[in-house]
Amino acid sequence: MRLRQAFLRPGRTRPPLAPDPSSAADTLLGTKKRRAVIAAGSALVLVTLGVASTAAARPSSASASVSATGLPVYDHVVLVTEENKYYDDIVGSSNAPYINSLIKQGASFTNFHGTTHPSQGNYVALFSGSLHGVDSDDCPYNFNADNLGNQLLTNGHTFVGYSESLPADGSKDCGDDGSGGYARKHNSWADFADIPASSNLRFSKFPTDFSKLPTVSFVTPNLDDDMHDGTVKAGDTWLHDHIDGYAQWAKTHNSLLIVTWDENDGDDSDNQIATMIVGAHVKPGASSGTHYNHYSLLRTLEDDYGLPALGSAATASDISGIWDQGGTTSTPPSSPPTSSTSPPSGGTDLALGRPATASSTESSSLPASNAVDGDATTRWGSKEGSDPQWISVDLGSSMAINEVKLSWEAAYGKAYTIQTSDDDKTWTTVYSTTSGHGGNEDLTVNGHGRYVRMYGTKRGTSYGYSLYEFGIYGPASALAAPPANAPANAAANPVPNLPATPQVTGPTYASPIPPSSSTSDLTDPRKKEAAMELVSSAQNSSLDWKAQYAYIEDISDGRGYTAGIAGFSSGSGDLLDLVNLYTQRVPHNALAGYLPALRAVKGSSSHRGLDPDFASAWHTAALDPAFQQAQNDEMDRDYFNPAVTQAKADGLHALGQFAYFDAMVRHGSGTDPVSFAAIRAAAMKQARTPAQGGDEATYIKAFLNARKAAMLAEATPDDTSRIDTEQQVFLDKGNLNLNAPLSWMTDGDTYTIAD
Fold it and tell me: What is the DSSP secondary structure assignment for residue 88, as one 8-state letter?
């Protein structure tokens, strides 16, 4: 086997991120996140990332997998932008009593900043992730670039911008800046060619029945009412009179209100502004001192709805720390916990392999037995949107129990009881809560019975209830021999020890990969495994993609350290995102102390504060299954989920989904001419997607041609065999479902995935 030297193989050199030519202020490194997913390094074994089944998959959203902050997925979001006021002009001001009441009702930010001066660039940046060269309030600007509105409209959602005093619905008029009326400089969606007139409406069309609102609405008052020409008090009154009805409705209807400002009233680079968020699943009175800006808001909205991050939003962090854990969370993790919660010292899971029943199941692939099979990659799922629901385990005989461990999927119980029974009819409650938080919950109980059940009365999400593991433990005297069909380690079920050497065995499937399936969805575990092997054949000259947790080096591409399974880099900021995620899950870890340095070097190639021991700390962290899982989740958020979501929206089956995924891996989700978005746009000029009524094979051919052209146009043209003798081969054979067996070549080497 020919081993690739990390990213440096001829023809595979990864060029540095080019700055967005429209504005150096967008980002020091530029807007493109182009990283090769499979970096080279010492041999390691990676947890499989497959979703249990297509039936188990839920609509994709953020970025990706469930955010560490429990980012809610909202039915409606309304964002109102006010004008030109310093933070202290608003927060605590007697002229803004209504706005300050919103701060108490929801969350506020003491370190939030505008993007630029003057006004117009802030609106453009918030809507599209880039200034696009805007450095004045001139009108008109017209852009042929992707934006939040287009992302929503082309991914099964809706968007409308509502402007007070807009001359007419769909108007592109520049308005009369200075007259107190409408000004197009505050209506950024009018600047983008792909936003239809039907999404550019007068504020008088803002629905009074808030359930009829689009998924995301942007609202701009006129110049008198947005504090630009009028007073703070007048703007505060306008918000109360026109927006408060929605704000109060949102709290009980899974909806959100965001009020922000474009810029402060000066020309300082700090540009601090007030921002507040109110609605369902927002902690009342929450305050964040984290540095955020307009790109952070855009990233939050894109992550919320599973959209690729645009431009500088790709290097911004979404807003965290303000969400109520009882909120409707974003897409459940594409990978389950690496293992079930560990039993108490000397304890045995009495439920392991025992008969289990449930009030309902979401599908035949999510039975109650999955929660007691000792396999942390399988789960029970109830039907969605209904309370109460329960799952019950028959221990075989009456036993004393002193501990219950619940390993929740994203669909968790907010209010539930643990009950015992000797006859499966009369139940005794041994534990009760109304504040369940999901994740892994370790409950101390005191009871006995043959039957033990979790009885859920209030869901923590809009889904149902779902458990990877329902563990039941008792004192040593209660232990029974494991059933004949239990795993071989069921009698002891010890906590696995971390390896003593840098070679990580890591989390793996507890059972064989499911049998081959003809499903057309790339989220099928076997197809996802095949997709990763296909990528690895091009990136690593090997099908062994499960080998890169501990990889880290500076490959001299201007991004500082490159590391892990997705080539996370210190310069582009996703390595910071990863370590943040890991630290939220495991606060005292080997990398947590480097967070200040990672924040400082973001946007540069510097190692300041990282050397000489950061690489060693990374190797230590790579031994931790929690860090491995964090890498899995971050990779899915950045690449797999956005690619597959977009492909499904375009009507593509597994081959087309893989073509998007491979392109996202190689080219990133930015807006430059060789990004994934640009490749897709070029393909759509040549052929219609299936969702537009086009022929699927014709469109995939156009996409592959556009991608090949992008690869050849780069400063260091890349080898195109991953197109010519891989994906094109599958397309020529009509294998749109990417069914095994698969045979292909990359770089002259032949690979096969057997049936």
Answer: H
The dihedral built from the CA positions of residue 429, 435, 439 and 442, taken in this order, carries a sign that is: negative
Would you say 35 and 668 are in contact if contact means Cβ atoms under 8 Å apart? Answer: yes
Determine the distance from the C-alpha atom of residue 479 to the mean position of all C-alpha atoms in its chain, rounded to a whole number.
42
Distances (CA, A) of 711 to 666, 667, 716, 717, 723: 9, 9, 9, 6, 10
Give the sign of the dihedral formed by CA 493, CA 499, CA 505, CA 506: positive
Neighbours of 235 (CB within 10 A): 25
Per the listing, tokens 């497959």 go with 50
What are 142's two structure tokens? 């017209």
* pLDDT at residue 614 is higher than 90: yes
Is 60 exceeded by the pLDDT of residue 61? no
- Per the structure block, which two tokens stand in for 74? 């909202």
Give helix then strand counts, H and E, for the chain: 17, 22
Quick: pLDDT tens for 192-238.
Answer: 999 999 999 999 999 988 989 999 999 999 999 999 999 999 999 99
Q: Name the amino acid, one letter, at 584.
A: Q
Residue 202: its pLDDT value, please? Answer: 95
Q: How far is the C-alpha of 668 from the C-alpha of 662, rounded, in Å?
A: 10
Strand partners, 743: 752
Give the pTM.
0.41
pLDDT of residue 292: 93
Contacts of 223 (CB under 8 A, 6+ apart): 83, 177, 178, 179, 180, 181, 182, 183, 186, 229, 230
- Within its chain, how far is the Cα of 453 from the centroid? 32
pLDDT digits (tens, 9 = 90+) for 454-476: 999 888 887 889 998 999 988 74
Give the torsion sign (CA, 649, 530, 711, 573): positive
User: pLDDT-derived band of residue 141, with 50, 70 and 90 as boundaries?
Assistant: very high
User: pLDDT for 671-700, tens place per residue?
Assistant: 678 888 889 989 998 999 988 888 999 999
Instruction: Please check the confidence at residue 364 and state whether its pLDDT lies above 90.
Output: no
Beta bridge pairs of residue 192: 143
In one letter, which amino acid is 74? Y
Mean pLDDT, the chain, as a whole number? 79
Residue 653, C-beta contacts closer than 8 angstroms, at least 6 positions apart? 520, 521, 696, 736, 737, 738
Q: Give the C-alpha separation, 504 to 509, whole Å.
A: 15
Taking 60 as the threshold, does the pLDDT of residue 253 lie above it?
yes
More confident residue, 284 or 704: 704
Classify each residue of 559-578 as buried b or exposed e, where b means 16 or more C-beta atoms within 10 Å of its C-beta.
bbbbbbbbbbbbbbbbbbbb
Check residue 314 and give its pLDDT: 87
Q: How far apart are CA 607 and CA 600, in angstroms?
A: 10
- Ranges 475-479, 533-537, 565-569, 652-656, most confident: 652-656
What residues have CB less than 8 Å from 432, skipping those under 6 apart?
Answer: 416, 417, 418
Phi and psi dihedrals of 398, rounded to 5?
-65, 130
Planar angle of CA 646, 650, 655, nearest 5 degrees: 80
**Partners of 452 in beta bridges:** 393, 420
Residue type at 390 in one-letter notation: W
* Location of structure tokens 């096969």: 752
CA atoms of 101 and 111, how far apart (whole Å): 19
What is d(CA 310, CA 319) in angstroms, rounded to the nearest whole number? 16
Classify residue 16 as exposed, middle or buried by CB count within 10 Å of its CB (0-12, 13-18, 19+).
Answer: middle
More confident residue, 587 or 135: 135
How is the chain split among helix, strand and coil, in percent rounded to 5? 30, 20, 55
Phi, then psi, of 590 in degrees rounded to 5: -65, -20
CA distance linking residue 356 with residue 350, whole number of Å: 12
User: DSSP 3-state assignment of 255?
Assistant: strand
Please give the Cα distance from 177 to 157 (Å, whole number): 32
For residue 271, which phi and psi values (nearest 5 degrees)? 55, 45
